[in-house]
Amino acid sequence: MNTQTFEEPINITHNESANRFETTIDSHTGYISYQDRGNELVYDHTVVPQQLGGRGLGSALVKHALDFARQQEKKVVPQCSFVSSYISKNPEYKDLL
Length: 97
Prior knowledge:
Elements lengths: L12 E3 L4 E6 L2 E9 L3 E8 L9 H15 L3 E4 L2 H9 L8
Parallel strand pairs: 4-5
Antiparallel strand pairs: 1-2, 2-3, 3-4
């Protein structure tokens, strides 16, 4: 397993047409997808390619998505177990539930 971290800051973009936040590193794309339900964002899948695993990309994507929800004053429904686990480990996001 590759446990090195990324040398450069991770550039995460909001792909509104695909309802996801994504980043591409070394031609591999990781993302967190969502469903917009008006005043709620349902985060349903966090996908990190195996080639990028173990370096904090999933956590970076979830943090970005949760910060976006806060900026938009929306509540979060963590259907994805990774998102749910991240919120459990980072109680500063529990108010979004």
